[in-house]
Fold:
Amino acid sequence: DQQVKQNSPSLSVQEGRISILNCDYTNSMFDYFLWYKKYPAEGPTFLISISSIKDKNEDGRFTVFLNKSAKHLSLHIVPSQPGDSAVYFCAATTPFGNEKLTFGTGTRLTIIP
Amino acid sequence: NAGVTQTPKFRVLKTGQSMTLLCAQDMNHEYMYWYRQDPGMGLRLIHYSVGEGTTAKGEVPDGYNVSRLKKQNFLLGLESAAPSQTSVYFCASSYLAGNTEAFFGQGTRLTVV
Structure:
């Protein structure tokens, strides 16, 4: 059972426009959420996170929004740049057994120059 | 500053052969993890460790064994490789439990023929 879902395998966005990546989860015990970015032939790198006590967290061009009632979070990238082309993974963890992250299947973002 | 280093980066095995993947981190992290990445499946946790001398099963542990004899090293073993173990393997480490960013290695691409 996929507890963290990224329903869009791929997304293409024009350079300079907003990229919106979505993530849904089913486990109501998840209380911390992270986004990771992965380039080909490299390991994932941490991008931004949000605690369930917040509904928004911003870091430069990246903003994550959390809607707990809908069990949905999204990552906004504004403005999108060619270097943002990568695979983005959403991940979540619970307050118990929180030694591990549960990852989504990833969304491949392509920024079109 | 090496971070998390995985060896080897590529390997081809014949069915039934054994091998060990080595992960080394130089950040004095307590927590270490082994994930596998398969198309359409995201990152799935194989085994993890919450400290030197400890190991625990993740989501997909069958066919793998691990050891954490030294804090900085986490070994993943395949005793009798199967084609279903063809995957990209990532090691990660973190200072605290899963609700903090984890640092990933570059990955090991393993093909079992």
Notes: The two ends of chain B are 36 Å apart (CA to CA). The interface with chain A takes residues 4, 31, 33, 35, 40-45, 48, 50, 56, 58, 90, 92, 97-99, 101-107 of chain B (CB under 8 Å). The first strand of chain B starts at residue 4 and ends at 7.
